[in-house]
Amino acid sequence: MAERGRPRGFDADAALDRAVDVFWRQGYEGASLSDLTDAMGINRTSMYAAFGNKEELFRRAVARYAFAEMAYARDALTQPTGYAVIEAFLRANADALTRSDRPPGCLSVQGGLAEGGDNGHIAKFLADSRLTGEQALADRLARAVEDGDLPAGTDPLVLARYVMVVSEGNAVHAAAGAGREALHATVDMALRAVPSPDGHRTA
């Protein structure tokens, strides 16, 4: 027997995907419960039963977004050199931020930009999520220093933070209407700051 309030044939994953889209377009504060339940095709009782409250739904939406939409970030970490890791990540990121079948920008950046009445819980959650990705990148770049394809003395955490600042800045500009070509031009400039094994900046 179907759970009370849940429509027959309810697909939790599909409903969560639609919630991702609402949060992505409107941010956490901008997305009302009515916006979410209308998009998900369920009533509030079903939403609470399947996903918990709005904050819990948002956390699950961000996790699904990270798994599905950020796969390119995990793939970039498998590149053979530190420079290749950075380039693959920033290029794929610029493409992802400007996909025609997705909202422009990035859920993890836009989701918590507006201040709300949650005492900063959502902003901190998103910041922590981004720091997790930054740390994974820093760990990979530390290995690149050990392997000699980044110069000795390179601070992998500072370099990873620099890469993430470029990525997050591009996300803000994409949400404001910047196109793919403009974002890749920014990536071109950013890559010139990546040090080469001989200690010189990459051309």
Describe the structure.
This protein is mainly alpha-helical. It is 67% helix and 0% strand. It contains 10 helices and no strands. The protein has helices at residues 12-30, 33-40, 44-51, 54-69, 71-76, 82-97, 107-110, 121-147, 156-175, 180-191. Residues 1-5 have low confidence and may be disordered.
Keywords:
203 residues, mainly alpha, 67% helix, disordered N terminus, HTH_TetR, DNA-binding, TetR/AcrR family transcriptional regulator, Tet_transcr_reg_TetR-rel_C_sf
How much helicity do the residues have? 55-70%
Oligomer: single chain
Structural class: mainly alpha
Query: What's the rounded overall pLDDT mean?
Result: 89
Anisotropy-based shape: elongated
Our Rg estimate from Cα atoms comes to 19 Å
The amount of beta strand, in percent, is under 5%
Taking the sheet with the most strands, its summary is: none
Cα distance spanning the termini: 64 Å
The total beta strand count reads 0
Uncertain runs are 1-5
Topology as a string of helices (H) and strands (E): HHHHHHHHHH
Keywords: DNA-binding, Transcription, Transcription regulation
InterPro entries: DNA-bd_HTH_TetR-type_CS, Homeodomain-like_sf, HTH_TetR, Tet_transcr_reg_TetR-rel_C_sf
Protein name: TetR/AcrR family transcriptional regulator
